[in-house]
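Give me structure tokens for this 452-residue protein.
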Amino acid sequence: MSDSSGIRRRRVEGQNIDENGEDEDTNPTHGERIDKSFTWMVLVLGVVTGIVVGMVQLAPEHQISMSLVRLGDNFLYSLGLCHPVYAVVLDAGSTGSRVLAFTFSRNPINHQLVLKDELWREVKPGLSSFATDPQAGADTIEQLLAMAKERIPESAWSEVPVTLMATAGLRLLPQDESEALISAVRNVLDNSGFRNEGVDIMSELNEGVFGWMTVNYLLDQLHLPRKSYVALDLGGGSTQITFLPKYQETLDRSPDTFFHPIQVLSNKQTLYSHSYLGLGLMAAREAIFKLGDPEESLDVVTACLVGGNSEKWRFHSKEYTVVPDKSTGYEFCMLEVQKVLDSLGIDKCDEVPTRKIAAFSYFHDRAIDAGILPPGQMTGVVTVQQYLDSAKSACTTPDPDQPFLCVDLTFISALLHHGYRLAADAKLGLYKEIDGHQTSWALGAAFSLLEN
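Here you go.
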């Protein structure tokens, strides 16, 4: 007969036997099966984690390792397990001042900073334009800091490093004027609520190195230094070239002053980096216009102004009247440009034409103005020949809305072709932004602030 549960049981020597004749004590319960499954899952997860950590540590430069690190970082950050890290960098350039407020996380596996967010704002004119009114210049910096404060929680302000680095614009001012501006801005940063890490004229070396770090980080090449890009930055007052040499000939033949030891992702590297003061787009334009004219003259004659009309142009608190020469056009303009380039002795490094090149700042902006890239396009690949052709076109058919396009494009194409010796068919990557982040030296400066 069956009992009320429908299951017959019999006790044999103190054991529970089910209706199938099996020992009930040795038959796993549902809870035991769950425990075993969970144990196996933990073991498998531990093995997988060990393999991932081992691969990241043993082959950190492998693309799979980098992808795993990014995936893990994003996952932990989304769970709130990686706390945000902030830095504020003020870029006081020749033509405008910018604030960049960065948000990072620090990867728990390799402890490296990972960029999460960025605020970029600009005010014009540049700080150097306030040479005679330092407080007015400092007020523009205060406006930019107010924008950064809107992005960063107030509770974090006291721990957030902030720095202002002025570039070629202030380098070209008389010392007393630049020092007055720096003093006024330092007072603003001291009272900002952030941790003031310094106000100064940026060294030419740092401008190049930080720019190189920025583009190669954003292009995911910092972990592959021998495959990294040459960084070409064209500002208003100076231009920089920076890269990590691959060939011993470069180390042997280039000027010793061009080589600088730095840390790249905790590894010591030697960079080739040089800043040519006076070869930024605006400074070069001034030098070209003044070529052959008296030093103090504000009425200048040039072959690079086409169209027959004189133009007013203001640079560093000076207003020039630019007058077309008797002979104008591309060929005559190119001769003037090459004289200016030759006077500054550009190092013609044989390795540069063999490397991938990332160009930014005015290289990108004038490509947009010339129609080489369509309006609003943040990245693109162009050839040196396209700059040469656009220069010829601008000097042949002037645009009344852009009277200085002839001189700017002629200078850029000559800098690339005659200065750096890039072939006409050489390709350049042009970058205004990469993945929504600005291609300026400020990101490299932020890394330096947080790692020191």
